[in-house]
Each structure stands twice: as structure tokens, then as C-alpha cells.
Amino acid sequence: MVTLPSSRVKPFLAQLFILAVTLVLAACGGDRSANKSPQPSADPAEKATLVVSIGPLAMIAREIAGEQVAVRPLIGNGDPHHYAPSVTDRVAMESAQLVVWLGPQMESVLARQMALLPEQQQLGLLAAGGYEFDGADKDDPHLWLRPRNAAVMAAHIANRLAALNPGQAQEFRARARDFSRAMANLQKVQDRALWAYRDVQIVSTHKAYSQFFGPAGVTVNSLSGSSSHQHGARAMLEHRENTEAEAGRGCLFGEVPVNERDRQTAEHLNLGYQALDPLGTQLPADATYPQLMQQLLADARECLGAIPDRSAEH
Questions:
Q1: Is residue 44 classed as helix, strand or coil in its secondary structure?
Q2: Are the C-beta atoms of 275 and 298 separated by less than 8 Å?
Q3: Among 67, 151, 188, 215, which one is least packed by beta carbons within 10 Å?
Q4: Is the pLDDT of residue 12 over 80?
């Protein structure tokens, strides 16, 4: 056994202590590094999140997402044209698997935030294409108001979700096919209900509703939009205004809430007045897309139903 001189015992013990502490710290550091190593991306039970800009798109997306994907709408009662995302909304967009919007033609302010997201994380439905415009204004971005176009939107969403979640691809696409068949039937019902009003004067307070009325052969004249479009609508309406026989033979459709300015405009033009809710802001949070369209049709007929039927005169 080797015996150290007493003068060297304390330095030796100090060195042993330092070595022991170093080893302990290294072990702890190794544990921390292990904690930082890549972990599974998510609990299998945790849902991916699909963020959508407006309520109608959320309704369509829920038809496709099923139980596998959570759908979070951004805009509640706000105006999509002027909506700017809050800090919470921006965080939700950045962490979402996919963000679905229409495009800068509809959500012009939101476009600035969307430009910061990777292309693979967003889906602009207007740019995706494949929509019907027969009987509608080519510049009307309210494409969801035509059920057959809603089916096209659903197909775009299903294809992107299928690419992002290959294990559920067949389910997403099967739901899109079912939704498409349902929309074909809904379109027939809507067109039959509106067809009788194809000779009635239909006016909107801004460029909207042509996708709703157009498939039935009903022309919509806008009181806003391009200067030429506005001038043509006003000129025709002023001509009708001076024709007493045409009084009460049309409807002016605005948007909720009901407001006195639109009501006075309708009275000035000898038209009935009805506020519609194309975004479904007054429907329950869990309302479906068919319920949105049924409510729009019911509200439109509140005004249209008051117009005298003159079909027997022809």
C-alpha cells in the first residue's frame, strides 16, 4: 500500500473531487442532449390542424376532414376583404398543417400574411381553378355560393390533405366524392327554386351573388364594382324606376346586418329589400354547408316570394 505524505493528501483529494463533479456534469449534459434529440412528431391520437379563412370554407373542409383533421376558421363576423390576423391567428397559421383561403381577390389584407408561409403549407382555392362561371360574373370571388363549385373546392382540399396524410388519402377522397354527389343534387334544387325569377330584376349592393343566382338563368346587377358595370346597372335601374308597371318587380340583396341605407336604396329603385348572409355568420358554429345554402335560399325567397306572378300574362 502506498502512503502519500500528508502535505499531498489535500491536493489529491481536491483533484478527485473535481474529477467526480466533472463526470457528473458530463452525464447530466448527456441527458439534456438526449432530451433535445428528435422525438416523434406527434401523438398518434393528436389531430393535424387545417386553418381556413372564412366560415363557408370551414363548412366544406369539415365535410372532407372527418375525425382525422381539426378545422379552425380564422374570420368570424369580420369582413374577409379587410381582415388582418391577430397574433394568435398568426401562430395558428404557422403551426397548421395546411392553411386554406380563397385568394387576394377576396382576402386582400390576409394576403400579406399568407406570403410569409411556404407554398406547400397553403392552398389558394381561387387559383386552383376548375370552377363554373356560366351565368355568373367572372370577377365574382364568392364561388362557394354555387354548390357545384363547392364540390370542386372540396376536391382540391381532399387532394392536398391526401398528399399530406397518405394513410388517410382514400378516406379524404371518398368523402369528396360523396360531397360532390350531394352538391349536384343541391344545385338542382336551388336552380329549380330560382328559375321562376329569371325575368325578375335582381340587384346586389356589391359584386356578389351571381354564383348563387346565375346557374338558374337569373342575372344579377351590382351597384358597385367596376365603373362600367356600375354605370350599366344604375342606368337600367333608373329606366325601370320610371316605369310604374315594373314597380315591385325586383329585389335588392345586401348583406347582414339589415341597414337603413340599403333599405332606402331599394325604395328609391322600387325594389324589395332583403339582407343575405353568404358567410353564415348568423348560423350556429356547427352549421353545415347545405344548411348555409338552404338558409340563403329561404332568405332570398322572403323577397322574391312577394313579387306578383305575371307568368299568366305572357
A1: coil
A2: no
A3: 67
A4: no
